[in-house]
Amino acid sequence: MKKIRDFFKVYESPETAAVFEQNEYDSNRLSLWVIFVCAGILVTAWILNMVGIFTVAKYRMTILAILGLLEFGVPVVLYFVFKGKKRWLKYVMIIMLLFACTQLFIILNHNVILIMILPVLLSSRYFSKGFTVMIATLSVLSLAFASILTVFYGIIDLNFYPKLPDGTDIMIENGLRSSVVALGIDPSKAAVSMVVNGLLPRLLVFTVIAFIAVYIAKHGHDMVLEQAEISRASAGVKAELNTATQIQNSMVPNIFPAFPERKEFDVYAAMYTAKEVGGDFYDFFLIDEKHLAMVMADVSGKGVPAALFMMASKILIGDRTIMGGTPAEILTFVNDRICSSNQADMFVTVWLGILDIETGKVIASNAGHEYPAIRRNGGKFELMKDKHGFVVGGMAGLKYKDYEFTLREGDSLFLYTDGVPEANNADKELFGVERMLDALNLNAEAKPEEILKNVNSEVNRFVGDAVQFDDLTMLCLKFHGDSD
């Protein structure tokens, strides 16, 4: 008994129980519509028989039609009473459909042979191999029973009798014995020939269809379980990525205002990753009371590898900057360290600047990064086309160069990664540097936070529904000078 129960069992897990339950309800709804269609066919056949198009005995047609409609009515009533939300409904719906189809087959005999396939096909939709095997077995028995029963009703299809002359096409229904004998045919042999030559080939084809239905049921069941397993694995990966995102976000300054006690400058930064984790990063920190370091960088690649490389690069740059030296010296050191163990052949573009808070003088070095944008007090943002060095991690032994500029009271500096100008819309059109400058100058005198929001808003409006392919990172510093 346990083996039988196990054969019919749908192997649910806590994750798939709701899926299988909903599948049963959806299958019940499909079965209901098929029952309506079959009931419509039965009523149509009954009407056609009443007007003389079908030459089935009217009393037999009427009795079986009424009985079939009653059988169709049982699952329909139960479906609406329980709103299709009972899993046992499938047994009532499919088995009653099978009985009604059998009766329709008996009425119209060989004209509706395919209708017996319906219960088997519907059963496979429930994803229960045992249920489909049961319905297939009942369908085969019903088909055999109905075919044999038609002989007792007086129907013998002599097309399956091998000794008739070529071209003979005859169906004997009324006055069976006298008609068959008049043709010189033994009625018992004709009945056997009909069963052997007509029924058996159909049973063989029906058996093949039943095997296919069983396979579909099992495959659908296994597919749900596989999808559940994939979902569990995806959930685990997503949880890990969420943790990685939190770790990455904690690696960059994200509390603003960053230096509320310092009135000489105001700084704000934002990072929007294309995936859960990305390769862009920014940083700013006080080296001492007089000097502020600013970093904007973009690692090659995306996702977890880029994030790991980003963290290593950020730590190297930050630690080496605290030790002292110019930006060029710092990048030269970091480049050599990365190249010494860069088995992944990744690289990072870096803009590194050190601001003298008292004088506004900035010493900077650019390792293959985007041009910064600068705004002089009362003016507009413009690109500052500085000297570029090679990317960090690209080649060992490189020497980077410093350059200088001075920020005066009211001046602003904007740093960004290529995700801003290279953001593209659905037509693959780039946002571009010009649009970026226009966005910066919407309210060029605003605070850094508002300036970044303006740029981000313009990028989002331009991109629309297109997928974000690159990380987007920005930093803006406004220099106020000596507050005294």
Can you walk me through this structure?
- It contains twelve helices and 13 strands.
- It has 484 residues and is an alpha+beta fold.
- It folds into two domains: 2-233, no CATH class; 256-479, Phosphatase 2c, domain 1 (4-Layer Sandwich).
- It is rod-shaped.
- The model has no long low-confidence stretch (mean pLDDT 83).
Write a short abstract of this structure.
By secondary structure, the chain is of the alpha+beta class. Helix content is 51%, strand content 15%. Strands 4, 5, 6, 7, 10 and 11 form a 6-stranded mixed beta sheet that branches. Strands 3-13-12-8-9 form a 5-stranded antiparallel beta sheet, with helices on one face. A two-stranded antiparallel sheet has the order 1-2.
Distance between the termini: 92 Å
- Quaternary: single chain
Low-pLDDT residue spans = none
Beta strand %: 5-15%
Q: How can the largest sheet be summarized?
A: 6 strands, mixed
Taking all Cα atoms into account, the compactness measure Rg is 40 Å
Spatial shape: rod-shaped
Overall strand count? 13
